[in-house]
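Query structure, 299 tokens:
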């Protein structure tokens, strides 16, 4: 592998100094791996100090020729900037070859959302008579009711539940903690799952505090949650392509459309910048049309 010692140091830097999750660290390392693949395609193995801005521009063109989407290219460029920024900090390189590399312009695509009837349809499609049914209902209620990312859901712990004040403590990106309100319905399903299903499970050592467990008594995986949402969409005949993140989008959109303060939504979602939250300020086109019809004198 090219530059193995530098990549190893970069990994430690991301884990220890930036406190990134394992998924984020893997994404950054994947970006560097793509650069290595590019050099392999050229039968070239330059020293880390020999990488130039022109090299990186050619690399981005290579990604584009492979058909990589602009959003993925932008993420790879972000990874390169982080890597060479780390090398600058460590005095490995004197000039940052990625400094002048610009990410492709991205259109701000509005995220897909579900309406409340579609969300209720997903929940109603769950067979509560099965042992995992109560767990699955609780998971959907928590994801939609609290706007959690899928990893935040699978990492949710019993010790981070505060039912008396109706809050949960969530560990978000970069191990940042935040308190998120949780509604009575979600708390009810969590309580039923804990007291009627989970209490009878054989829990693997080290998994005792995680709320949502698989049938082997271990912490639920991210892919299990994705598969659950996919199967529910199929069983309800939902035509939209959805994922666990769709419930988070729906949570934010419904709050904004209901008149919630943008700063409050930002806090609940765990966004570091309010510009990320602003994508949810779109208003339903049907609503806009109704406003024109109702209030404009020339309608």
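Result returned for the query:
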């Amino acid at each position: 592998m090219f530059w193995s010692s530098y990549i190893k140091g970069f990994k430690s830097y991301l884990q220890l100094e930036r406190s990134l999750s394992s998924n984020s660290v893997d994404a950054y390392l994947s970006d560097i791996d793509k650069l290595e693949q590019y050099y392999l395609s050229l039968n070239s193995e330059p020293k880390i100090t020999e990488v130039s801005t022109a090299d990186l521009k050619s690399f981005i063109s290579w990604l584009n020729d492979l058909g990589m989407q602009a959003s993925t290219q932008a993420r790879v460029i972000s990874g390169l900037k982080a890597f060479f920024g780390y090398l600058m900090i460590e005095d490995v390189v004197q000039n940052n070859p990625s400094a002048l590399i610009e990410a492709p312009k991205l259109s701000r695509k509005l995220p897909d959302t579900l309406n409340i009837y579609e969300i209720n349809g997903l929940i109603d499609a769950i067979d509560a008579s099965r042992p995992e049914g109560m767990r699955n209902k609780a998971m959907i209620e928590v994801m939609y009711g609290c706007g959690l990312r899928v990893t935040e859901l699978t990492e949710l712990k019993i010790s981070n539940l505060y039912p008396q004040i109706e809050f949960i403590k969530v560990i978000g990106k970069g191990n940042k903690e935040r308190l998120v309100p949780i509604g009575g319905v979600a708390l009810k399903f969590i309580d039923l799952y804990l007291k009627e299903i989970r209490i009878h499970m054989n829990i693997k050592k080290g998994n005792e505090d995680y709320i949502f467990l698989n049938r082997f008594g271990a912490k639920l995986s991210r892919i299990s949650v994705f598969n659950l949402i996919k199967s529910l969409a199929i069983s309800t005949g939902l035509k939209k392509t959805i994922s666990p993140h769709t419930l988070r989008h729906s949570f934010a959109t419904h709050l904004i459309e209901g008149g919630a303060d943008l700063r409050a939504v930002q806090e609940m979602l765990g966004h570091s910048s309010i510009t990320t939250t602003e994508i949810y300020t779109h208003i339903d086109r049907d609503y806009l049309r109704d406003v024109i019809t109702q209030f404009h004198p020339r309608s």
